[in-house]
């Protein structure tokens, strides 16, 4: 049975996060289009161009001892040769340790992400990634009666 475009896009999206978890810069680089790409990391300015975008991931990987993504609320919408993925990145990460041989403190963070993919002769490739931190506490909002 052949896979649908939505399944292929979801696989490419999963591969993106798995490459980050493994610290696989070559694998992550292969998932991005060759040119015309954009990226917004939480709290960063817009990065444009393959070189600038990939340098940002090299910097993140070099300064992150451990990272794990638990993706929730994943939606995939394909329109022709473009696909839009939205998801919540439930991130567990740890920075460099104070003492050699130890893991730094683990921190949890919620980020909502939009990943835009384009169909290429080599499969679905990332065109744009935009991550925004989730600052609102949904539990508190529900108690206040807000929806």
UniProtKB/TrEMBL annotation:
<protein>
    <submittedName>
        <fullName>Nuclear transport factor 2 family protein</fullName>
    </submittedName>
</protein>
<dbReference type="InterPro" id="IPR032710">
    <property type="entry name" value="NTF2-like_dom_sf"/>
</dbReference>
<dbReference type="Pfam" id="PF13474">
    <property type="entry name" value="SnoaL_3"/>
</dbReference>
<feature type="domain" description="SnoaL-like">
    <location>
        <begin position="9"/>
        <end position="134"/>
    </location>
</feature>
<dbReference type="InterPro" id="IPR037401">
    <property type="entry name" value="SnoaL-like"/>
</dbReference>
């Amino acid at each position: 049975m052949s896979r649908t475009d939505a399944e292929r896009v979801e696989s490419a999206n999963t591969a993106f996060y798995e490459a980050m978890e493994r610290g696989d810069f070559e694998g992550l680089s292969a998932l991005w289009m060759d040119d015309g790409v954009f990226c917004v990391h939480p709290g960063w300015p817009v990065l444009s161009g393959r070189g600038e975008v990939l340098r940002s991931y090299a910097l993140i990987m070099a300064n992150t001892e451990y990272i794990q993504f638990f993706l929730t609320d994943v939606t995939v919408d394909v329109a022709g040769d473009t696909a839009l993925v939205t998801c919540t990145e439930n991130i567990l990460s740890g920075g460099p340790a104070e003492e050699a041989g130890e893991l730094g403190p683990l921190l949890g963070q919620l980020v909502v992400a939009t990943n835009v993919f384009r169909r290429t002769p080599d499969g679905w490739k990332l065109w744009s990634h935009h991550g925004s931190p989730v600052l609102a506490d949904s539990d508190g909002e529900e108690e206040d009666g807000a929806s």
